[in-house]
């Protein structure tokens, strides 16, 4: 044996052996079990190590591929399972320090020069060492090696490598950091840890953390670095910095450095001898050269926020606030913005500002969140050192305004929240740069600006200094500035903030602010307003502020103190006399020549203040009886109308005519406010008792007409602008939106006084501005502000729209006009002939409706029949080449109005409109379409027929039958569809075509049902329909096979749908009539028989030959069911009557067809489960087929074949679970019929199948679908009415079934996660079984098994929907026991309460208030809490049985409820339930509870009992007073 291993060792060391052979031999020696070498693993590892060390020390020359293979060889050894097993078994493998140094050197080469030679293998070796604790000791035992490795690894990563090396590099970094953190925790010398981190690791790892935070690798195309690993490494870096730089042992050094330094230079000598950790960290942080210059500033900025956060995490506690602050200025000094005032740096770019302001925001947030700044302590103890620093910060931010950066606003907001005095010296500059002069457009910046303004107003409101704030605002507005360049002062955000603030202010502050505004306006703006456009703009800004204050102050009422009312009245009088009227006078006496901008802005300001004054005056008059409006009727008004309210008190009427002419020049705020003034006059006029007088009505009409006419031209421009709803932002672009918004908001007032032309104008604008396409609607919804489309859409969906009859009727006429014009544009050839045949299509405006009104009048007065004319004209057009042809664009244009039409309430329109729309929609549906637009045509037809069906369900549906017969509509519809189907380029099984067939079927069914309901010439109409169907070509019996191939398959389907609907409706009617012999008629049954014969023939044509018979498309299965149902009803009616010899005894003419379909369904049943509707149709057919034994095949038992097929379907693992609830009613009907007509042996077969499926071996074989199918079968059985021997068989098997269910439930609940797909049905079946009562399950033991099932089902760690459904099922089982098994309840109350308490405690757990998380799941928990409350009431109803256990129920409830804090709604429901149990407790029980409960629980119980006495008991006594 010695020769074996000594030879291998010698060959590995021999210089004559080639390296190729050495590597092969070493590989063989490692993997072979036949090579016996003492300490083989160590020898082979040492050989590879020595070879590599010799090569890198230049003592050995090796080829590159040999070196790489040596590294791979070491890597294979380190990662081998063999080595891991040896180490586990206690064998020692020593790694020499030389190998570690070589690994570190190779990584250093990669970090310094980017040399990737063998780097992947080296990193894998390093990873193998670090991932094996027994080998990693060589690193952890020598801290300097680990620090060097971490340094080199991080520098390598900071080079931002790419490719396969990235994943390996970061895995090694992750492992190395993990080991170093353990070393750090065990380090007893804090200075060494601090030195290692600051000297070697701080700089590179701050750079690495920045790169990871930026997503340098995780956002790459290949996804080289996992998000989770990136996050873990960042957390490790933070832990390393915390453990090295901010150790608890260094707190005294930080205090010595930061706090003693404040006392002066007396201790500088002592300080030098101490460790200066903060200076060291900052020096290392700001040093240049450790990363690329382009990254340096960003790395420093991001690191500043991190270091301050770590410092606070480590050292912040009560008493250390000053220490934590002293770090802040030093870290802030690392940012470039800190040197801006010293002019030591050049201007920063926008991205640099964003980065540094975000860091500053984090620093200030840390100060605010940790309460570092205490105003009193800073002023009294520390000489306002913090305040001075924050003042310097505020000056820096205000002097270098950065309005485009959201963080700039947020920093100012935090400073205000710290102390308003920080910013008060620069309040005017703050208001100018952050609000008045700020140009803010981006959404996030707007939100930050709003938050700043909100904080500003809230702060000064609390200080009761809002007038002071407004004085500064007014000072900024009135500064000399290029006013035209300013944004509006009150856009949506600032206006909303100001509105909220004003609502909370006291009347005195409001009046002070109001008076201040008036004074500033009079003293600074009004004297210089003439000829000064800049002053005109300032006047508009002040007017908007006045408007906002007056509109949003709290209203006066009768309880308001009289001095406040008087002061308000004086201010109103002063405003009218000293401001509003002078502005109007100045407006009517403009400078010469008239500057357009000046004129526009002064008119805007004057009319805005006029409208504001009138609105507020009216509101004060209505709400406060002690307020008296300014008197003074307008002069120059005719005597007969002087009693009506003026536009503005004391202003001559003639002046308003001049103002109207002036404002007509501009689409601006002035015109909008003038409309508001006229609207206000209308409202005030309507408040008068004489508003119905002729003079008042004339004024109301003229005012309404002015409002509509004022913006008529602007609405014709169809602007796409959006308006934020603020008065100040109304301009030439937004005026149309504001004008339309004003009219729509007051339609209920305006429409009563508008002329028909004006109403028609409103309706046409409404239709024109509606978003017709989905794209337009989506873009309108995305727009955050008000648009024309949004306003019109709101009107269309408003419930008030149908109530405004004049506008609603005008809108319906506009829709008719729009659709008619599109149809007329598709007329081919000369339209003269068509206008003679369809005159109503070419009528204009209201003449369309007038046409049908005249027709109806003739029918009623002269009894003239006009049905034939319209129907014959349409039929002749449909049968010939239809003269209207619609192309793709025209179809798209019609779909928009049709979508609008579908949102209207057409079921309540008047008969003329109903007929107009019905015929118009019918004409659109029968028009020719372009052949290439098949999918678009289907969508168009579907919309038309859906609307036609909706009309036929309406109130005026019978009015259509005064114009056309039902049979004519049927023939017109089907004729056009049969012709159109021949040109459609679409497959028979296309989903859109199948959906269209359903729509057509629904429409035809509604049409025929209406005919049945009104019983209008039934024999005549059905006779014409049957005759028409018999003439249709696709069902001709004499057609040859070649002709059948050439026939239109889509047309056959259409014909089949129409035949099935006739059979369905007529069959049901004939069946009902047959029960009333006096009404029976032979004509209709004969017509039904003809239709069924035709339908059978068409079904044969629609079938295709297949194996074993004819194959019918699954989409046509409902037609077969309809045919079979009609045949069955005829057969049974013939059996009930006296049948002559000629008729024989049967009417089943299609037995072969039914048998073929039956065979086809049995074969295809598993496939049909993929389509719910087809599966439902198949089950419906099988139910009907089973009920007709005459058509059953003779060779096989239908019951057995059908049962095995259904069992196979239910056991199919591919069967979608969601199908089961939808098909359940059909399955129940089928099984009820099967069990009703089946024999006892058949029933035994079903029971055997159920018990076999519930066998526990199915679960052990991993066949859950077999179990689920058995449970489903059992559930279906329990819904079927059983009697006699069949019922006895089921009840005798109940004990076995319950035991099997318990075993299955236990197995399903033991799996992780719980198989709820099995548990849920088991609970449903168990509840159904228990509901059968004690007659079915007589043994109490088997009922008790239900409790074990309930206790097994887990309720924790479930998703909310699963939790809710499982909870309900458990509750149902408990409720079934409580209600249906009283004998069991006598002995098993403890078990019952144990199961019920699980539900109660589960609701408590799910309904607790969580630290983080939304309340989205609360509705589910509330529903469960309601179930618990209801169960408490049922338990309390059994007072005699439960009274003994009531104190224990209360005790258990109290013990659990005191552990959690419940949501109030959940707590309320549970308390209502436990109150009912307390009703059962005696005084002795209450004393027992007070004595026995734990101290904490006892206090909660006392509180509960007090509430019970206070609320529940008193309520109970009140109810008993009214109880007999």
Outline the structure in words:
Helix 11 runs antiparallel to helix 12 (227-245), helix 61 (1294-1310) runs parallel beside helix 63 (1340-1352) and helix 64 (1360-1380) packs antiparallel against helix 66. The longest helix has 28 residues, at 596-623. The strands form 2 sheets. Strands 1-2 form a two-stranded parallel ribbon. It is globular and about 115 Å long. It has 72 helices and 4 strands. Helix content is 70%, strand content 1%. With 1524 residues, it is mainly α. The model is unreliable at 1-5, 262-274, 632-642, 860-865, 1035-1045, 1138-1146 and 1518-1524 (pLDDT under 50).
Task: Give the SSE layout.
Layout: H1 2-13, H2 19-31, H3 40-56, H4 64-79, H5 81-88, H6 97-113, H7 119-130, H8 133-140, H9 143-158, H10 165-186, H11 190-213, H12 227-245, H13 251-258, H14 268-273, H15 277-286, H16 293-315, H17 321-332, H18 350-369, H19 375-381, H20 385-399, H21 406-418, H22 427-436, H23 443-462, H24 466-477, H25 492-504, H26 507-525, H27 533-552, H28 562-588, H29 596-623, H30 653-663, H31 669-686, H32 694-710, H33 712-715, H34 735-745, H35 747-750, H36 756-769, H37 774-782, H38 788-796, H39 805-825, H40 831-837, H41 847-861, H42 867-879, E1 885-886, H43 888-903, H44 911-926, E2 928-929, H45 934-952, H46 966-981, H47 991-1014, H48 1018-1031, H49 1041-1046, H50 1049-1074, H51 1083-1102, E3 1104-1106, E4 1109-1111, H52 1117-1136, H53 1151-1168, H54 1172-1186, H55 1198-1210, H56 1219-1237, H57 1240-1253, H58 1256-1260, H59 1264-1279, H60 1284-1292, H61 1294-1310, H62 1316-1330, H63 1340-1352, H64 1360-1380, H65 1382-1387, H66 1389-1406, H67 1418-1437, H68 1439-1442, H69 1446-1457, H70 1464-1478, H71 1483-1492, H72 1495-1520
Parallel strand pairs: 1-2
Antiparallel strand pairs: 3-4
């Amino acid at each position: 044996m010695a020769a074996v291993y000594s030879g291998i060792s010698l060959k590995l060391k021999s210089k004559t052996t080639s390296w190729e052979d050495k590597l092969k031999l070493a590989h063989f020696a490692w993997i072979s079990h036949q090579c016996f070498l003492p300490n083989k693993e160590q020898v082979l590892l040492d050989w590879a190590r020595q070879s590599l060390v010799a090569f890198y020390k230049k003592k050995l020359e090796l080829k590159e591929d040999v070196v790489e293979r040596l590294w791979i060889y070491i890597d294979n050894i380190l990662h081998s399972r063999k080595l891991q097993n040896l180490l586990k078994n206690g064998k020692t493998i020593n790694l020499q320090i030389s190998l570690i140094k070589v690994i570190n050197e190779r990584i250093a080469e990669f970090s310094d020069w980017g040399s990737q030679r063998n780097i992947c293998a080296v990193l894998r070796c390093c990873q193998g060492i670090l991932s094996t604790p027994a080998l990693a000791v060589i690193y952890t035992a020598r801290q300097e090696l680990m620090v060097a490795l971490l340094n080199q690894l991080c520098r390598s990563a900071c080079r931002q490598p790419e490719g396969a090396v990235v994943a390996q590099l970061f895995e090694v970094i992750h492992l190395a950091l993990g080991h170093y953190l353990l070393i750090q925790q065990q380090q007893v010398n804090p200075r060494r840890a601090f030195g290692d981190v600051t000297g070697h690791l701080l700089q590179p790892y701050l750079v690495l953390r920045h790169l990871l935070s930026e997503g340098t690798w995780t956002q790459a195309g290949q996804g080289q670095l996992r998000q989770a690993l990136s996050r873990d490494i960042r957390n490790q870096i933070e832990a390393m910095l915390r453990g090295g730089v901010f150790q608890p042992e260094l707190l005294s050094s930080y205090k010595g450095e930061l706090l003693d330094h404040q006392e002066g230079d007396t201790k500088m000598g002592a300080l030098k001898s101490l460790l200066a950790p903060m200076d060291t960290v900052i020096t290392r942080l700001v040093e240049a050269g450790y990363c690329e210059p382009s990254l340096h500033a960003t790395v420093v900025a991001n690191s500043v926020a991190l270091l301050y956060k770590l410092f606070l995490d480590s050292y912040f506690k009560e008493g250390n606030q000053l220490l934590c602050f002293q770090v802040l200025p030093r870290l802030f000094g690392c940012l470039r913005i800190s040197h801006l005032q010293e002019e030591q740096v050049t201007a920063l770019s926008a991205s640099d500002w964003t980065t540094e302001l975000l860091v500053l925001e984090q620093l200030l947030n840390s100060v605010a969140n940790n309460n570092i700044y205490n105003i009193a302590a800073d002023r009294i103890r520390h000489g306002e050192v913090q305040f001075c620093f924050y003042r310097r910060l505020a000056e820096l931010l205000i002097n270098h305004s950065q309005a485009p950066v959201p963080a700039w606003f947020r920093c100012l907001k935090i400073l205000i929240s710290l102390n308003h005095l920080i910013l008060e010296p620069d309040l005017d500059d703050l208001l100018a740069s952050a609000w008045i002069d700020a140009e803010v457009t981006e959404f996030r910046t707007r939100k930050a600006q709003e938050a700043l303004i909100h904080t500003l107003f809230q702060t000064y409101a609390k200080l009761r200094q809002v007038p002071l704030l407004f004085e500064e605002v007014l000072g900024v507005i009135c500064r000399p500035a290029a006013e035209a360049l300013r944004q509006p002062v009150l856009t949506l955000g600032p206006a909303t903030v100001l509105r909220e603030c004003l609502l909370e202010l006291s009347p005195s502050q409001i009046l002070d602010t109001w008076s201040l505004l008036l004074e500033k306006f009079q003293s600074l703006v009004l004297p210089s307003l003439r000829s000064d456009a800049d002053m005109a703009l300032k006047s508009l800004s002040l007017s908007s502020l006045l408007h906002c204050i007056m509109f949003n102050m709290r209203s006066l009422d009768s309880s308001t103190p009289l001095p406040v009312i008087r002061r308000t009245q004086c201010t109103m009088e002063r405003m009218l006399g000293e401001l509003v009227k002078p502005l109007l006078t100045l407006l009517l006496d403009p400078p010469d020549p008239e500057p357009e901008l000046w004129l526009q802005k002064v008119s805007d300001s004057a009319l805005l203040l006029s409208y504001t004054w009138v609105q507020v005056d009216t509101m004060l008059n209505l709400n406060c009886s002690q307020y008296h409006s300014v008197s003074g009727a307008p002069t120059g008004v005719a005597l007969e109308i002087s009693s009506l309210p003026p536009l503005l008190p004391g202003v001559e009427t003639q002046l308003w005519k001049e103002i109207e002419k002036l404002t007509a020049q501009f689409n601006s705020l002035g015109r909008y406010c003038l409309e508001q003034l006229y609207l206000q006059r209308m409202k005030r006029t309507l408040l008068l008792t004489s508003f119905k007088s002729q003079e008042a009505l004339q004024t109301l009409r003229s005012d309404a007409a002015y409002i509509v006419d004022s913006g008529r031209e602007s609405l014709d421009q169809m602007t796409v602008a959006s308006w934020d709803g603020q008065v100040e932002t109304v301009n030439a672009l937004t005026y149309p939106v504001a004008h339309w918004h004003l009219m729509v908001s007051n339609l209920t007032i305006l429409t009563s006084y508008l002329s028909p032309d004006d109403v028609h104008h409103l309706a046409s604008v409404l239709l024109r501005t509606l978003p017709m396409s989905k794209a337009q609607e989506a873009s309108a919804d995305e727009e955050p502000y008000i648009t024309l489309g949004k306003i019109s859409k709101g009107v269309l969906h408003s419930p008030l729209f149908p109530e405004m009859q004049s506008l609603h009727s005008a809108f319906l006429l506009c829709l008719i006009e729009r659709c008619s014009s599109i149809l007329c544009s598709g007329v081919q050839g000369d339209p003269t002939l068509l206008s003679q045949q369809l005159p109503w299509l070419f009528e204009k405006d209201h003449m369309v409706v007038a046409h049908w009104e005249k027709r109806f009048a003739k029918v009623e007065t002269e009894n003239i029949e006009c049905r034939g004319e319209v129907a014959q004209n349409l039929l002749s057009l449909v049968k010939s080449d239809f003269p209207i042809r619609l192309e793709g664009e025209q179809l798209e244009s019609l779909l928009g109005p049709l979508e609008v039409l579908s949102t209207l309430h057409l079921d309540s329109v008047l008969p003329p409109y109903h007929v107009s729309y019905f015929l118009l929609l019918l004409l659109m549906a029968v028009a020719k379409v372009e052949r290439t637009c098949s999918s678009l045509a289907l969508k168009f037809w579907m919309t038309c027929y859906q609307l036609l069906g909706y009309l036929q369900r309406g109130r005026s549906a019978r009015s259509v039958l005064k114009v056309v017969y039902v049979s004519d509509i049927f023939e017109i519809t089907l004729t056009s569809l049969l012709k159109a189907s021949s040109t459609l380029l679409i497959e028979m099984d296309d989903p859109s075509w199948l959906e269209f067939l359903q729509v057509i079927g629904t429409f035809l069914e509604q049409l025929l049902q209406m005919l049945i309901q009104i019983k209008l010439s039934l024999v005549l109409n059905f006779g014409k329909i049957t005759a028409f169907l018999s003439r249709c070509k696709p069902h001709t019996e004499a057609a040859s096979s070649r002709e059948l191939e050439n026939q239109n398959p889509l047309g056959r389907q259409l014909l089949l749908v129409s035949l099935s609907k006739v059979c369905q409706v007529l069959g049901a009617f004939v069946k009902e009539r047959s029960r009333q012999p006096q009404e029976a008629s032979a004509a209709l049954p004969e017509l039904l028989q003809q239709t069924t014969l035709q339908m059978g023939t068409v079904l044969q044509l629609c079938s295709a030959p297949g194996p074993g018979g004819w194959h019918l498309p699954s989409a046509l299965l409902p037609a077969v069911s309809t045919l079979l149902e009609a045949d069955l009803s005829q057969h049974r009616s013939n059996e009930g009557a006296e049948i002559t010899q000629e008729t024989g005894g049967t009417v089943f003419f299609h037995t072969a067809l039914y048998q073929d379909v039956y065979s086809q369904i049995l074969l295809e049943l598993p496939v049909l489960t993929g389509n719910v509707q087809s599966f439902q149709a198949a089950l419906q057919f099988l139910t009907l087929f089973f009920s007709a034994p005459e058509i059953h095949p003779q060779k096989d038992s239908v019951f057995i074949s059908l049962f095995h097929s259904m069992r196979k379907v239910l056991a199919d693992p591919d069967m979608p679970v969601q199908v089961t609830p939808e098909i359940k009613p059909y399955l129940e009907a089928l099984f009820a019929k099967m069990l009703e007509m089946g024999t006892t042996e058949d029933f035994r077969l079903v029971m055997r199948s159920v018990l076999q499926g519930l066998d526990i071996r199915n679960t052990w074989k991993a066949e859950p679908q077999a179990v689920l199918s058995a449970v489903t079968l059992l559930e279906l059985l329990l819904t079927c009415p059983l009697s006699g021997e069949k019922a006895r068989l089921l009840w005798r098997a109940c004990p076995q079934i319950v035991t099997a269910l318990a075993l299955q439930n236990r197995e399903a609940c033991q799996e992780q996660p719980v198989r709820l797909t099995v548990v849920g049905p088991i609970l449903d079946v168990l509840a159904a079984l228990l509901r059968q009562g004690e007659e079915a399950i007589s043994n109490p033991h088997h009922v008790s098994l239900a409790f074990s099932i309930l206790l097994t089902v887990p309720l924790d760690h479930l998703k909310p929907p699963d939790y809710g459904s499982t909870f309900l099922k458990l509750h149902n089982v408990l409720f079934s026991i409580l209600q249906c098994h009283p004998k069991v309840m006598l002995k098993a109350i403890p078990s019952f309460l144990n199961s019920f308490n699980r539900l109660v405690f589960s609701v408590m757990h799910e309904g607790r208030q969580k630290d983080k998380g939304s309340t989205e799941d609360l509705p589910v928990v509330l529903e469960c809490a309601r179930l618990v409350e209801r169960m408490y009431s049922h338990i309390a109803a059994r007072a005699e049985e439960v009274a003994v256990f009531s104190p224990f129920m209360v005790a258990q409830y109290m013990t659990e409820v005191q552990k959690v804090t419940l949501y109030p709604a959940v707590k309320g429901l549970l308390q209502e339930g436990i109150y009912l149990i307390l009703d059962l407790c005696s005084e002795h029980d209450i004393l027992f509870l007070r004595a026995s409960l734990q101290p904490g629980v006892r206090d909660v119980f006392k509180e509960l009992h007090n509430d019970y006495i206070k609320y529940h008991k008193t309520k109970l006594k009140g109810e008993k007073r009214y109880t007999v």
